[in-house]
Structure prediction request, 629 residues.
Amino acid sequence: MGKKTIVLGVIGADCHAVGNKILDYSLTAAGYDVVNIGVLSPQEDFINAAIETDAAVIMVSSLYGHGEIDCRGMREKCDEAGLKGIKLYVGGNIVVGKQDFQEVKQRFLKMGFDRVYPPGTTVETALKDLREDLGFAEVIGA
Amino acid sequence: MELKNKKLTEDEFFSLRKEVLTHWPTGQEVDLQDAVDYLKKVPAEKNFALKLRKAKEEGLTLAQPRAGVALIEEHIALLKYLEDEGGADLLPSTIDSYTRQNRYPECQIGIDESMKAGRSLLNGFPAVNHGVKGCRQVYEAIRNPIQARHGTPDARLLSEIIHASGWTSNEGGGISYNIPYAKSVSMEKTIRDWQYCDRLVGFYNEQGIELNREPFGPLTGTLVPPSISNTVAILEALLAAEQGVTNLTVGYGQCGNLIQDIAAIRALEEQTREYLDHFGYPQVFITTVFHQWMGGFPADEAKAFGVISVGAATAALAGATKVIVKTPHEALGIPTKEANAQGIRDTIMTLNLLKGQRMPMSPELAKEIQIIKAETRCMLQSVLEVGKGDFARGTVEAFKLGIIDVPFAPSKYNAGKMMPARDNQGAVRYLMTGNIPFTQDIIDFNKEKLMERGKFENREVTFQMTVDDIFAVGKGNLIGRPEGDKK
Prediction:
């Protein structure tokens, strides 16, 4: 089996690039094929990249608070595009202001996301979930 | 028309202006004569440019928060709270991210949904959608000068609207509001668009109205070496001055090492003066702004106050004219108004305790100032060479060639070949210089400093240091030492 592919990007009108670059670096180092569509990416770009690369996971970052508006309908759009069952992860500062995270998590789970991460999540947490959801990746030179 | 660092003629400006005002229906509300009359009535204590002049003359450091929400009433309540309960000397209006990308229809969705939800779904104030009418309501409701703070590559319509509304300062610039804030907007386009914003300020100046402009200092806010941000600030100062701006605030984002931070502000002010004088703009009045730590924050509010206080202390000891304040909610995103006011009060207390004190010159401080200036000079000289004597053309070329290179920038017009890391005292140095045309002395100095850290930590000097440094402050330390090493 080849390496599992992850589509990575920052959604909406958000230009926070630092975490994106670190995730790219760390996921690649962990043996995944990372397709990084970068910042300021609309839902369509995530979905098109996932179709083109036969990705197993779409990993959405949002740091600027508009995540709630930007992520709406993404699961339905994936279904329509033939990406039924693709794993959708979202993390960062996904809402405006300090809100109860459990409530926020429920809101995003209801939207169809499989994993919802609070601010300050380490890369290790995401790697552990990826292994759980996808099985072990082929690790190169680990 | 070829891009040049040359003041737009009135004809050029007004022909561009006609088109700019059509970008969104509120553009039609902007009437320049009415705006001039309105701005002439702004009292001195509510004029950003004049309040900064006064603060500099008195040797004070002013405190300014960031803040903005979707709806007018709520935004006014927020700003009033920050001046009344927080004690802010200067007020902001942070503009939401859809406006920054000129996506006004999405702002409207955000405004409507915020009304329905009873909470702001936008991360800032959509000033273009609210138009002159809405922005004047904000100006009239508060006591202090107000500034737009954003991250907009094309801020022409936004600038028209805010200045016509009595907002007497605008943050941004053709480099600093492109490279850290956009993915695929060309440098040539943003320089032109910001020449327009600066020319607008120049126009008001010709009518006897002084407005303040502030290049955005911290750039990506992540381990940006002082000489990189100083180079960008000086370039934007030169471009703004040419368009007729006479009141400029150059900025720098805290890196964390006290001596380096103070050296950065001193070098920035002195070198901006030097370049403006040398290239024919001695009339420009320069002030400085120090941004409290722009990187990742600790989630623990008590620890966050530690970060905020050190930032305030550094601004005071450096002699910055103003300090941009962080909040104890920084790690979690946009703060409540209470948390925001706490950040200001913490800052003002620290500033008061240090009032009148400056870090005295020492061999260490002198050495840092000297190295920052030397690095900056290498870049600026090269910009002038590749631009064949023109700073606007030179800036475009310099980014193409990686002569100036901003770490962790989203823009594809940035080379991204330079990499920073902290030295053993926490000062930010160049780990990889990419295509930046430094002298061998400078390259050797940076290498030596990083080797010192590698030796202390008993590891190779690599990108892993950079990664560790990015997360270090969030985890409670300035320097990203290897795990398990808690010295």
